[in-house]
Structures are given as C-alpha cells and as structure tokens.
Design a protein that fits this description.
It is an enzyme of class 6 (ligase). One of its GO terms (molecular function) is asparagine-tRNA ligase activity. InterPro entries: Aa-tRNA-synt_II, aa-tRNA-synth_II, aa-tRNA-synth_II/BPL/LPL, Asn-tRNA-ligase, Asp/Asn-tRNA-synth_IIb, NA-bd_OB-fold, NA-bd_OB_tRNA. Homodimer. Pfam families: tRNA-synt_2, tRNA_anti-codon. It is a single chain. This protein folds into 2 domains: 2-97, OB fold (Dihydrolipoamide Acetyltransferase, E2P), CATH 2.40.50; 118-419, BirA Bifunctional Protein, domain 2 (2-Layer Sandwich). It has 431 residues and is of the alpha+beta class. The chain is elongated and about 85 Å long. α5 crosses α7 (232-253) and α5 packs across α14 (403-411). The chain has helices at 50-53, 55-63, 111-116, 118-121, 125-147, 186-196, 232-253, 255-260, 265-269, 280-289, 303-310, 365-374, 383-390, 403-411; strands at residues 2-4, 16-29, 32-38, 43-49, 69-78, 86-97, 151-152, 158-159, 171-174, 177-181, 198-206, 219-228, 277-279, 317-320, 343-348, 353-361, 396-402.
Length: 431
Amino acid sequence: MKKILINQMPNMIGEDVKLGAWIANKRSSGKIAFLQLRDGTGFVQGVVVKADVGEEIFQQAKSLTQESSVYVTGTVTADERNSFGCEIQVTSIELISEAVDFPITPKEHGTEFLMDNRHVWLRSRKQHAIMKIRNEIIRATYEFFNNEGFVKMDPPILTGSSPEGTSELFATKYFDEDAYLSQSGQLYMEAAAMAMGKVFSFGPTFRAEKSKTRRHLIEFWMIEPEMAFVEFDESLEVQENYVSYIVQAVLKNCKLELERLGRDVAKLENITAPFPRISYDDAIEFLHKQGFDDIQWGDDFGAPHETAIAEAYDKPVFITHYPIGIKPFYMQPHPERDDVVLCADLIAPEGYGEIIGGSERIYDYELMKQRIKEHNLDEEAYKWYLDLSKYGAVPHSGFGLGLERTVAWISGSEHVRESIPFPRLLNRLYP
C-alpha cells in the first residue's frame, strides 16, 4: 500500500492508498462516519461506510477523538465538493496515538485562551492557511531576488549599536561588553552591498517598543535588500515590482488558502506595479482636507493618518520625502531641499499600514560624520560604518519589508499576531 500525502491525492483517483493524518473533526450520520483528516499539506474528508468496513472499524471511527493520530487506508475517489476535489473511502484505521481532552474544540474561544494554546492553535484551518501564505511569500521572496541577481547575506543578530539610533533595544551582555538584539540588519547589508553589488537579508529583528496595536510585534522578520549604484527612484521600482511579485505568487499558489480565509481576491488581483506616489507635503495637505487638524508638517504619521491616505488608492501607495527631523541619520538629503530626505514608506491598502520603509543612503563621508554627530551617536561605534563612505563610496539605496504585516495584509488577517507562528507581544513570551 503506497503511503501518500493529502496534497497528492488529486493525482491518485481510483487508487488504494495509505495516509498518516490527525483527526481535525468528525461527524456521523446513521451508518456513515465522516472524518476530517489533516496532515500538514491539507485537509480532506475520509468516508467510513459501516456496510463496507464492518461493525468493528465503524465503531472505531466513531470513537476517534479530535487530534488523535491515525493511519487510514482506502480508495481515493473524486468529489468536487471537497477542496482538493477528492476524498478517501476508508477501509481500515490504525490508531497511532489517542488525544485526550484537546483544548481547542470546534466552538468560539477567547483570544487570550487561543494565544496561551498557540502551539496547538496552529493546527486549525485558518491558522494553517495563514502559515501557508506566509511560506509562499518567503518562497517567492527568494525567487524574486535570486532572479534579479541579488546575493543572500546574513547580518548579525547581536550588535554593538543601534542602526536606527534609538533606545528601543533589547540589551544583553556580550561577555564583558554591552550588546543588543538587532532591530535591523541594514548597516551590515550596506557593507555587504559594497562587496557584492545587490544583496538581501531575511532574518529576525527585535524592537523594545511598548506598543499593543494590531500592527506591532516585539520580534518580527524583515527582508532587507541593499543595492549599490541604485538611486532613490530606481529603488522604488524594485520595491513595487517585488511586492507585486509576491502578491501574484500567493494568488497563483495559495488559492485554497485564500478561499478558506474568505479573502477578497479581487483586491489582490489589482496589486500590480506601478504604485501611486504622494509626497509628504501633499499628504499633509490631503489630511488637512480630510479633517485631520491634529497633524502638522514635521509630525510623523500615525495609523489613522496612514489609513486615510491608503483609502484614497486601490493599490499600495508610496509616501515620499519625509522631513529630515523624523527619519534616521543615514538617509540622503534631497538635492534641492535641506528639510526632507530621499525616502519613502509603502502603505498597504485596507488599513494595514506601512509594510516597507526605504531610502537612498548617504555616501558622503563628511556628511555622514556630521549626521552621526547631530544624532548624538558614538562615532567610535560607527567607525566601521563610516569606512563605507571612505573607501570607494557610491550612491546606494535599500529598504526593509516587514514580513508579518505583509502576511496580515495579503491574508486579510485582523491582527499581526496571527501572521507569525509564535508571536512575541508586549506581555507575552509564552508559549
């Protein structure tokens, strides 16, 4: 008997097979039992007919508990009502391990309860679908950057200083000196770009920001490309092409998952480059016309402001040229203005907020020294970074995409905590 996976079943119609699976749910109707089986690749129905299998196997099927693990054998048959277009007519069941009192039953549960049981909540259909979409975004990310000639490089997680020049860092001891969990790999990726030309990283980052919003995590994953000889507008083109690519990949390869989540795919089908652009100046003017009198030139945008701007467009929108005073030290000033920098945030539609922040980077040595001083940073700690402006400096640009916000947006999830397997929140370090 050939052992297969659920996602292989559509190609096995009419064949006798063996599945290793968990019981996601079950129901019985008279002399037929219906087993909802899952194996990580998908969900499928197993049909147990008493007249075909006999009393003993039928009673065994009826007594199976939620999340018990089994081997089932049977014949794959076509059934267009099921997501894979097939089901399995079960002929025998082998119990591997019986699950007793599985905590997440087919009823409503509170968020805190589900988060306490995140290790098993991941097994649910919705969470399974979100994780599959996350995986597809990661797969498509590697594919996009490899196709575009980028080299994958890995920045350190333990650092001696802050890339953003902030105090929102997790401190630790590195033997006899202070170290911090990285909040961005950007500075190291700039060094890598000076060696390799076009590079990208994909790894965890940490922000000690005491925020409880649906958009924030303490630990999250970032995709951070850096590109030598690439200027601001060229970087925006890479960003919109990349986002378009991952959205279209999800539409192509995660149809079942999007359907399971009830996602409006028409909104995603519209996500193709180019994306609209609005300057910070024009965004302030737009918000004033929308009644946001609280925001003034020089202020950073909050969630309500970003949402209002996003609602004016049916695609992600770039907000460009922010004031120099609210952006990090390394951003290249506008060539014709001394009050704004060559940067952009990409705001996702439907209220999901910023998913990308990027800029052209300063490459003038004296200007970089000046900016480090203006931000009260320790020049000695940034000596290696200054070297990049000292030895063969070139125009270069980069950006960072927050994976979890992107997953939340594409999957239509209400809260970013569902877009990572084990979220780290302000008051949550378990499980």
